[in-house]
Amino acid sequence: MSSVRTVLGDIRPADLGVCDAHDHLFLRSPRLPGQELNDASAARAELEAFRAAGGSAVVQWTPYGMGRRAADLPLLSRAAGVHVVCATGLHQAAHYAPESLDGLRGRLAEVFVSELTEGIGTSGVRAGLVKVAGGFHHLDAHARRTMTAAAEAHHATGAPIAVHLELGTGALDVLDLLCGELGVPSDRVILGHLNRSPDLVVQRQAAASGCWLAFDGPSRANHATDWRMPQAVLALAEAGFGDRLLLGGDTVVAGARSVDGGPGMPYLLRRVRPRLVAELGAERVERILTGNPARAFAVDWR
Q1: What is the CATH number of the domain that holds 225?
Q2: Fewer CB within 10 Å of terminal CB in the chain, N or C?
């Protein structure tokens, strides 16, 4: 039987509810000095604000070695009344000190599988997806290595693979590698940041493969998101791909949280949802926020 693996245990997909399909409660990176998401009180307040806006679930894409604070997630989930799904996986090499990757050589898949099935460190929290990342219009050796390990972890567990597309590019290269060479079923692949490269042709080609398309980070006006995303989502829905779409907030720095003066997680429901309803209708948007993530993150765990 399929289930979604949350930080509090496996739940029925139908119980996931309104879902922010890509966001972060905790995150740190040498590329974002001084902007870390590392405040548990702020994370709880953000979850509570999302809940107050009508949200029920948040999928945290923060992978291995980037400050996930997995041990804190169950308490936050219970306190806020929001389902939380966390990730294993690995981001681009630039997000790590080089020496921190040395010990992972040759055992990435083993680490991913362990975090999906046994738990992250001593926290006992099991990951519910694998997060990896491509580069700008290409896949370097690090990306190919991590995606190969992610594919091995998928084949061992059934877990979905969520992919950071750098500025929304490289979608077809990712699918060629994961689904073509490595044999991952396309419906187990979630492509993130499609809104950052509003190429409707590539988006339609990617959707036609059967993968999931995540439109996330909607409050980043410099990424041509807010004003183009509704039309892109509408075009895909009218082309018959409404059942392949996901929505997320992708809050990556402290100043972007709603409780710190930014748009944060509630923006997805407070501002983006009404705008999409005006374009697509309430029924379609409800499916994108509830039915689609329930299927995207549901796994027949092995």
Answers
A1: 3.20.20.140
A2: N
Residue 80 lies in a domain: yes
Nearest-angstrom CA–CA distance, 26 and 60: 8
Amino acid at 64: Y
Q: Measured between alpha carbons, how far is residue 176 from residues 67, 158, 171 in Å?
A: 30, 19, 9
Residue with tokens 């809104």: 195
Our count of domains for the chain comes to 1
Residue 56 is encoded by which pair of tokens? 């029920």
- Helix 200-208 to helix 229-236 angle (10° resolution) is 40
Name every residue whose Cβ is closer than 8 Å to that of residue 128 and which is 6 or more positions away in sequence.
Answer: 4, 5, 6, 59, 85, 86, 87, 116, 159, 297, 299
Give the C-alpha distances (Å, rounded to integers) separating 89 from 36, 41, 107, 192: 19, 26, 12, 14
Note the pLDDT tens digit of each residue in 57-115. 999 999 999 999 999 999 999 999 999 999 999 999 999 988 888 888 889 999 999 99
Please identify which residue in the block is written with the tokens 């806006």. 53
Q: What pTM did the predictor assign?
A: 0.97
DSSP conformational letter for 262:
S
* Residue 19 covered by a domain: yes
Please list, in sequence order, all residues whose beta carbon lies within 8 angstroms of the beta carbon of residue 185, skipping any fewer than 6 positions away.
179, 210
Q: Which domain holds residue 101?
A: 4-130+214-296
Q: What whole-number distance in Å separates Cα of residue 168 and Cα of residue 49?
A: 28
- Residue written as tokens 């950071």? 164
